[in-house]
Design goal:
Elements (H helix, E strand, L loop, with lengths): L3 E6 L10 H9 L2 E4 L5 H4 L7 E4 L11 H14 L4 E6 L9 H11 L3 E4 L4 H8 L13 E5 L14 H6 L3 E5 L5 H10 L7 E6 L7 E6 L3 H7 L6 E5 L5 H5 L11 E4 L3 H13 L3 E4 L3 E13 H4 L23 E4 L2 H13 L11 E4 L2 H9 L13 H12 L11 H5 L3 H16 L7 E6 L5 H5 L4 E10 L5 H8 L3 E4 L2 H10 L9 E4 L2 H9 L3 E4 L5 H12 L1
Parallel strand pairs: 1-4, 1-5, 2-3, 2-4, 6-7, 11-12, 11-18, 14-15, 14-16, 16-17, 18-19, 19-20
Antiparallel strand pairs: 7-10, 8-9, 8-10, 13-17
Helix pairs in contact: 3-4, 7-8, 19-20
Bound molecules: S-adenosyl-L-homocysteine (SAH).
C-alpha cells in the first residue's frame, strides 16, 4: 500500500505544452518533486495543498544529487500510503532526463509507478523557432545528442564524432552550449561541412525565447559574442534555413515580460490567458482566497455600520424563503453571483425563485456571469463601482429620471440615449414608483465596504462569501514573484496583502498596473510606480499594459 510515483514530463516551458494526463495528476498530487526547468505556471497548477520539493539543479551547483532524488521518491512512497507523488521533470522524463534511473530505483523498491511522457525540448523548441527537425528533400532523419556526457576515463566528451559527422540527418544537441566550440571543431575535423547551418535556441517556448543563427565554422565564437546561455538547444543541418521563413513566435508585445497577477485564482485565468497570448510570462499569485459560505448570512445594514464582521456564522437555508421579501437583487461581484447561486442550488431551489425580481449588477463582468445563470440584468451603472451602483439604486428610489446618472442596459446601446431614457423612465419608472428601499437585497462578501449600505441604509445585506487573505507565498512562487517586471493589482486589498506576504525590498521592480483609482492610491502608498486603467475592466487594463510596453 505504498504511494504511487508518477514520472511526469512538464514539456519545454510553455505551460500549454503540458499533457492533459500530467495536469490531471498534478492537480491531485500530495507531493511534487520538481526540477529547475519547470515553469512557475506549471507549478501553479499543482494541488495547492501539495508538499512542493525543489530538487532543481543549478549548472555547476547540484542542489540535490540524483541518488538522493531516487531515495527521496522511494521514501515518500513508503512513508505515505496511497499518496500521489508527482516527479515533475523538464521536457520528457526519458530524454536525457534520468527518468530511467528513477524508474529502476522504484522497481527495485517495489514502488508502483507510471510514466507520463512530456513534449521533449529536442523537437518542440526548434518547432517554436520555425525549424522542422525533418523535411522532405532536406533531412530524412534527426539525431538527438547530449553535449554533456563525459567519458569515465579521460573526462572528454564521449561522442562518436566520426559517425555524427557523416550522418546526413539533422543533429540536435541538448546541454551542449558549454562544449559547443569543442563539438564543432571535432565535427569539422571528422569531415562535416563548415558551412552547415546552425541555430542556437535559448529558453525555447518561453516568453524569453531567442534564436541565434551561425554556421558550424562560427558556432563557438557566436555563442561567446551573442552570450548564448543555458538552457539552449543547438540544431545543425539544412533544416535550420527554414527557420528564416517559418519563425512564427516573435515580436509579441509582451514577450520577455514576467508579470504577477494578484487576482483570486478563479478570476485570474481570464487575464492570465490574455497576457500569455500577448507573450508575457504570467505568475498567478492570488492574494486572497474566497470561500462560499454554506448559506447566506443576514446582516441588516444598521448593524454593519462602522465595523466589518470578520467571522460569519451560518444560518438555516430556509433563508431563501425570505427572498419573497425583496423586489430587487444587487450583485457587486462575480464571487457574489457564484456563491449566491451555489447556496441557492444547494438549498434545493432554482432560478424560478427569482421570477419577477429586478436584478442589478455592479459592472459588465458581473453582468456576464449572471447571464451564465440565465439572468439578464436590468441595471448596470455607468461607473462600475459599488458607489456607482448605490447611486443608481438611490436615484431609482428617489424617483429621478433615468437621464443623468442612471444608465440602463438598453440605454448604453442607444445612440439616442436621451429619448430612450425618457421612454424607459416611463416604463421602468412606473414599475418602480413603489420600490421600497427595504425590499432591496445586496449580495456581497464579508469585506465589502459600507459604500452601498450608506447609500441604501434600509436595504438588507446578505453576506454570501468570505474573503481570507493569503498568509504566505510558497518558496517557488516567492522567487518568481520577486523577479517579476511588474505586478497587476485588481483591488486595494490585493495590494495590502501583496505587501504583507512579499518582501518589498527584494522586489526587482516596483512597477504596478492597477485597476481603479482606489487600488492605485493604495499601491502608491507602498511606493509602487502605478499605471492605471482608464476603465475598471480587464480589457482596459490589458490595453494599458500593452501600451506601456510598446
Ligand atoms: N528531458 C528534457 C531534457 C533535459 S536535458 C527534454 O526532453 O527536453 C536539459 C537540456 O534540455 C538543456 O540543457 C537544453 O539543452 C534542453 N532544454 C530544455 N528545455 C529547453 C528550452 N526551453 N529551451 C532550450 N533548450 C531546452
Amino acid at each position: 500500500m505504498s504511494g504511487k510515483v508518477y514520472l511526469i514530463g512538464a514539456g519545454p516551458g510553455d505551460p500549454g505544452l503540458l499533457t492533459l494526463r500530467g495536469k490531471e495528476i498534478l492537480e491531485k498530487a500530495d507531493v511534487v518533486v520538481y526540477d529547475r526547468l519547470v515553469s512557475p505556471a506549471i507549478l501553479g497548477m499543482c494541488n495547492p495543498k501539495a508538499k512542493m520539493v525543489d530538487v532543481g539543479k543549478m549548472p555547476q551547483h547540484h542542489k540535490v544529487k540524483q541518488s538522493e532524488i531516487n531515495k527521496l521518491l522511494v521514501q515518500f512512497a513508503c512513508e505515505m500510503p496511497s499518496a500521489t507523488i508527482a516527479r515533475l521533470k523538464g521536457g520528457d522524463p526519458f530524454v536525457f532526463g534520468r527518468g530511467g534511473e528513477e524508474a529502476l530505483e522504484l522497481v527495485n523498491a517495489g514502488v508502483e509507478f507510471e510514466i507520463v511522457p512530456g513534449i521533449t525540448s529536442a523537437i518542440s523548441v526548434p518547432a517554436y523557432a520555425g525549424i522542422p527537425v525533418s523535411h522532405r528533400g532536406i533531412a530524412t532523419s534527426f539525431h538527438i545528442v547530449t553535449g554533456h556526457e563525459k567519458a569515465e576515463s579521460n573526462g572528454e566528451l564521449s561522442l562518436d564524432f566520426e559517425n555524427l559527422a557523416h550522418c546526413s540527418g539533422t543533429l540536435i544537441f541538448l546541454m551542449g552550449i558549454a562544449n559547443m566550440d569543442f563539438i564543432a571543431q571535432r565535427l569539422m575535423e571528422c569531415g562535416k561541412d563548415p558551412k552547415t547551418p546552425v541555430a542556437f535556441i535559448e529558453k525555447g517556448t518561453t516568453p524569453y525565447q531567442r534564436t541565434v543563427m551561425a554556421t558550424l565554422a562560427t558556432a563557438g565564437e557566436t555563442i561567446v559574442r551573442e552570450k548564448v546561455t543555458a538552457p539552449a538547444i543547438t540544431i545543425m543541418g539544412g533544416v535550420v534555413e527554414l527557420g528564416k521563413s517559418l519563425a512564427w513566435k516573435k515580436n509579441l508585445p509582451l514577450s520577455g515580460k514576467r508579470l504577477v497577477v494578484t487576482r483570486a485564482a478563479k478570476q485570474a485565468s481570464g487575464i492570465t490567458a490574455r497576457l500569455r497570448a500577448l507573450g508575457a510570462e504570467v505568475i498567478e499569485s492570488p492574494m486572497i482566497e474566497t470561500r462560499t459560505l454554506e448559506c447566506p448570512s443576514v446582516i441588516p445594514a444598521v448593524i454593519l455600520e462602522g465595523r466589518r464582521p470578520d467571522r460569519i456564522t451560518g444560518i438555516s437555508s430556509a433563508i431563501f424563503d425570505s427572498l419573497a421579501d425583496f423586489d430587487l437583487l444587487a450583485f457587486t461581484s462575480v464571487n457574489g453571483v457564484e456563491s449566491f447561486f451555489k447556496q441557492l442550488f444547494d438549498a434545493g431551489y432554482d432560478v424560478r425563485i427569482l421570477a419577477g425580481k429586478k436584478i442589478a449588477s455592479v459592472g459588465k463582468i458581473t453582468e456576464k456571469k449572471l447571464l451564465e445563470y440565465g439572468i439578464r440584468c436590468d441595471y448596470v451603472p455607468e461607473d462600475h463601482t459599488g458607489e456607482g451602483l448605490g447611486m443608481l439604486l438611490r436615484s431609482i428610489l428617489d424617483e429621478r429620471t433615468l437621464v443623468n446618472s442612471l444608465q440602463t442596459k438598453d440605454e448604453r446601446c442607444s445612440t439616442n440615449s436621451q429619448a430612450l431614457a425618457s421612454s424607459l423612465s416611463l416604463s421602468k419608472g412606473t414599475e418602480f414608483t413603489n420600490l421600497d428601499e427595504s425590499r432591496i437585497l445586496l449580495l456581497q462578501g464579508n469585506l465589502a465596504d459600507d459604500t452601498m449600505t450608506k447609500l441604501l441604509p434600509q436595504a438588507t445585506r446578505w453576506v454570501v462569501y468570505e474573503t481570507l487573505p493569503v498568509s504566505e507565498l510558497p518558496e517557488w512562487k516567492r522567487e518568481a514573484v520577486e523577479s517579476a517586471d511588474a505586478v497587476v493589482f485588481a483591488s486595494s486589498s490585493a495590494v495590502e496583502n501583496f505587501v504583507h506576504v512579499s518582501r518589498l525590498s527584494s522586489l526587482v521592480s516596483r512597477l504596478s498596473f492597477c485597476i481603479g483609482r482606489l487600488t492605485e492610491a493604495t499601491a502608491r502608498k507602498y511606493g509602487f510606480e502605478t499605471i492605471t486603467s482608464d476603465e475598471t475592466t480587464m480589457d482596459s487594463l490589458v490595453k494599458k499594459i500593452v501600451e506601456y510596453y510598446s
